[in-house]
Design brief:
The protein has about 375 residues and is mostly helical. Helices cover about 60% and strands about 5% of the residues. The protein is built from 15 helices and five strands. The chain is rod-shaped and about 120 Å long.
C-alpha cells in the first residue's frame, strides 16, 4: 500500500530537508543533488523492504551510501549536525505522510505505533552509519595531515629546500612558515603529550632517542612563557631563533646543549618543575665546552698547582680562585658568594699566591683559568 506512493514521499522529504537545514537549501544539481536524492530514495526503499523480515536495517551497499554521506560532510568542511538534522527532518515527514496513508487504509493504532517506532529506529541506524563515515574521514585526514607535517619538518631540518618547495610543503601541511623559528629537542621518554601541549603551532616528530619540534620563535614575553609552560619538566632544550632556512643550525645547537648541559650526576633525571633550557642563555658554556679534550688538557695544565692538595682543600681553593677571577679580587662580594668571612678569603688568597705565584698576574693565564673553572661548573 505504501510503495506506490514512495515517489511523492521522496519529494516531500527533499523539500523538508531544504527548509530545515540551511546547508542543503540550494539547487539539487551535480554531485550534491545526486547524493541527496540517492540518500532519500535508498533510505525509503530499504525501509519498505524490512517489515516482516529479520534482516539488518542496512545492507552493506546501503551502509556504504550513508557512510559516504558522512564522509562528504567532512570534505565539504561541514559538521555532522547538518546531516543529522536532515535525517530527523526526513523522519518527521516520512512518519507524518506514511501515518496518514496508513490511517486512510484502515490500519489500527497498534500498527501505527509500530510504524513510528520502526522509522525512528531506522533513522538511528542511518545516523550511526554516517557518523562512522564522518569519523573515518576525519581520521584519514588527520593521518594524512600528520604525514604532511612530518614531511615538512624533515624538509626544513634537511636544510636544502628552496623557497618554492618549502612554501608548497607548508601549504600542504596547513602550516605557515614563520619569519623565525626555534628548534626544540627533548628525550623521547619525556615527550609524551608534547604534541598536544604545543598545539598546531608546532611541527613535532619522534626520532630514535629524542623528540624534535619546530616552533615559531616567541615574539613576546607571554609567548615565551607559554612555550616554557608547555615544555616544563621535559628536560627540553630550545635552540636559538633562526630563519626557517637555518632550522638545522638551531637544532644542532640545541642538541649540543642537551648533550652538554644534562651531563653529570643527577642531570639525567627529569624534574617536573624545571623550566626548559634556552641555548641563548648558555652560549658561553657551549663555546667553553666545544672541545672537551682540549679543555681537559688546559685544565690539567692550569690547575696543576692544586694537584697535591687534599680534595676538600683543592675544591675550596678552586672555588675561591673562581670567585677572585669573577669579582676582580673584591673580597666583600667574594665572601658573600663563598659564604665565608672576608678574613677567610684573605687567607685563601695568600695560599693561592703561594701556589700559583706570578702566574696570577698574567692576563692570559687568568683568562684560561676562568675558562676551565667555568667549564667545571657548567658541565
Amino acid at each position: 500500500m505504501l510503495r506506490p506512493r514512495l515517489t511523492d514521499v521522496v519529494e516531500e522529504v527533499i523539500a523538508a530537508v531544504a527548509v530545515a537545514v540551511p546547508a542543503y537549501a540550494r539547487p539539487l544539481e551535480g554531485r550534491f543533488g545526486d547524493g541527496v536524492r540517492q540518500g532519500v530514495e535508498v533510505a525509503l526503499g530499504r525501509f519498505l523492504e524490512l517489515p516482516g523480515t529479520t534482516e539488518p536495517a542496512l545492507t552493506p551497499d546501503s551502509r556504504r551510501v550513508y557512510a559516504a554521506l558522512g564522509r562528504g560532510e567532512v570534505r565539504q568542511g561541514r559538521t555532522l549536525d547538518g546531516l543529522l538534522s536532515a535525517y530527523r527532518a526526513g523522519a518527521r515527514v516520512t512518519l507524518r505522510r506514511m501515518s496518514r496513508d496508513a490511517l486512510e487504509a484502515g490500519l489500527d493504532t497498534e500498527a501505527l505505533v509500530a510504524l513510528g517506532e520502526s522509522i525512528l529506529a531506522y533513522i538511528e541506524e542511518l545516523s550511526a552509519a554516517s557518523a562512522e563515515g564522518f569519523a573515518f574521514e576525519q581520521s584519514e585526514r588527520a593521518g594524512e595531515m600528520d604525514r604532511r607535517r612530518a614531511e615538512l619538518l624533515e624538509l626544513l631540518l634537511h636544510g636544502t629546500a628552496d623557497d618554492v618547495a618549502a612554501q608548497e610543503a607548508s601549504a600542504a601541511a596547513g602550516w605557515v612558515l614563520p619569519s623565525a623559528l626555534v628548534a626544540v629537542t627533548m628525550p623521547l621518554d619525556e615527550a609524551s603529550g608534547v604534541r598536544f601541549q604545543l598545539g598546531s603551532r608546532a611541527l613535532t616528530m619522534a626520532r630514535a632517542t629524542d623528540a624534535v619540534a619546530l616552533v615559531p620563535a616567541p615574539r613576546t614575553a607571554r609567548e615565551r612563557t607559554e612555550l616554557e609552560r608547555a615544555l616544563r619538566g621535559r628536560r627540553a632544550v630550545i635552540g636559538p631563533a633562526r630563519d626557517w632556512r637555518r632550522a638545522p643550525d638551531s637544532l644542532r645547537l640545541a642538541t649540543t646543549a642537551a648533550t652538554s648541559l644534562f651531563r653529570g650526576p643527577g642531570r639525567d633525571e627529569a624534574d617536573e618543575s624545571a623550566r626548559p633550557v634556552w641555548v641563548e642563555e648558555h652560549l658561553a658554556d657551549l663555546v667553553v665546552g666545544a672541545e672537551s679534550q682540549a679543555l681537559g688538557d688546559l685544565a690539567e695544565l692550569r690547575l696543576a698547582p692544586l694537584t697535591g692538595l687534599r680534595p676538600a682543600s683543592r675544591q675550596k681553593l678552586a672555588d675561591t680562585l673562581y670567585a677572585w677571577l669573577r669579582h676582580w679580587g673584591q673580597r666583600a662580594p667574594m665572601a658573600a658568594e663563598l659564604n665565608v668571612h672576608p678574613q677567610t678569603v684573605g687567607y685563601r688568597l695568600t695560599q693561592l699566591r703561594e701556589l700559583f705565584g706570578d702566574a696570577l698576574d698574567d692576563p692570559q693565564v687568568r683568562f684560561e683559568l676562568e675558562l676551565v673553572l667555568r667549564a667545571g661548573r657548567a658541565f
